[in-house]
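Bug report (template v2)

What were you trying to do?
Predict the complex of my protein with calcium ion.

What happened?
Run completed; filing so the output is reviewed.

Input:
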Amino acid sequence: AAGAEAGGDPRAAAIRDATADLDGKRIENADSEPGNWLAHGRTYGEQRYSPLTDINDETAGDLGLAWYWDTGTTRGLEATPIVVDGTMFTSGSWSVVWAHDAKTGEILWEYDPQVPREWGKYACCDVVNRGVAVWERKVYVGTLDGRLVALDAGTGEPVWEVQTTDRERAYTITGAPRIVKDQVIIGNGGAEYGVRGYITAYDVDTGEQNWRFYTVPGDPSKPFEGPHLETAAATWRGSEWWKVGGGGTVWDSMAYDPELDLLYVGVGNGSPWNRYIRSPGGGDNLYLSSIVAVDPDDGSMKWFYQTTPGDTWDYTATQHMILADLTIDGVERKVIMQAPKNGFFYVLDRTNGQFISAEAYVPVTWASHIDPETGKPVENPDAHYANDVKEIRPAPYGGHNWHPMAYNQDAGLVYIPALDLSFNFAQDNAFRYQEGEWNTGVDLEETIPTSDPDEMVEDLKAVKGHLAAWDPVTQQEKWRVQHDTSWNGGVLTTAGNLVFQGRSDGTFAAYTADEGKLVWEFPTHIGIIAAPVTYEVDGEQYVSVVAGWGGAFALASGVPRHRGNVLSEGRILTFKL
Ligand code: CA
């Protein structure tokens, strides 16, 4: 790490002071210090709504570049920065961590965990990292090769490090840690390769493990690690799932309600994708594609809601979850909201997991609707691909992927960075588990619908994305901004009646939150996928975004050459009036 002379460095001492009392109470009271962005989704409820108003729908047209910093990386950048009293902490490709002066962009320190580059073959969806957590003088990062590292916030020097995964299996970490009750909670990825999903809670000071919560049952001849797994095992069939891993990785989304003291966890797809191979004879395969509520004190399960029972299309429920209080049918409800890959927008009661409502936010063909009585999807029989190739919507990229949404309480709208893609599913009849390789049970050759160049051009025209403003009470789209390309950036909303989004065509833009009118845009010359943040230093408001094209869609589709996307290197771009 740079900035080594820790002891006498006044800047390092100032950062340690500023972060010394950053704990759960301070995050719970985040609205009392709106100039900071203290946690991944700003608050534990992860609304990504900032109360700052100097930059607003009337002034945003005057935004200009305050500073930029070249990351020197050419792979995807997906991080949400944390900003504490004028210092920005963020992460990049290969799990590198940076601290910057949030006012000037001056680099204060860099930490490189030296992830072995050959680990990149285990990363289904690029060597990305979605950000760090900051708590009591330390910065925490999960590394691509499965470590959790605590750094001195003042210098970036490692304080402790633990291996959270089995290095003999194809586990990766790309998600941001969350910190609840002096515990760092971290999940992992790798379901495409064949692993078993879980989250682990570690003591913030020592790195000692407090508990581990598995999302899917292991070998049923061994004792269950928790009563929830005995329940789950009854929903799996066959004798092979635990050998392949079962999947259910928690590779991104978590949220926390301090009042209910529940940690919400988004669970991913099965290993392999194909349920006819994974669990021959059927079964819901709990807790794949589910939102699970966990007691953060001991990792016991309180409730679950499964969005896609018996998932066979890679429909993860790892997508961003937002906590809010909504008035529905005249009753104030504590809800949790998610737009998982399966294309339906869900509103659930977060006290008990009860289904409230769900409607399709993008075109959906795998199910007709969610039955309001059972809270379960009604599958379309034509979505089953065991015998024939089937074109299905959404694609495994999802109607929405990891790109964070945002909820604006003033407008009463959730902003969804939506994808509109289809996919040709076909069973891989020659499937055989291969260690360290993709194990989907789907013939991916069938996903290429044509080799005719003219037909390809026509197909690519159908590859779309948009920004949807969704009313979660009426379950209707209020407005949308149609984009020319897919895989656009995560979202920020503010009390200044604004929504910010970067796009894959190399543009960073601001729209009015209530009506979706374009009020400002800026050419960034590189596609943006990460979500912006806003903060204040010395009384001035800034908006910042980590720009760097990459991720699953980019690995498959290359670089969109729109509007002069000419950069290959990533940049942190920071704007003010
Ligand atoms: Ca997946």
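What did the reviewer find?
The radius of gyration is 22 Å. Residues 1-6 have pLDDT under 50 and may be disordered.
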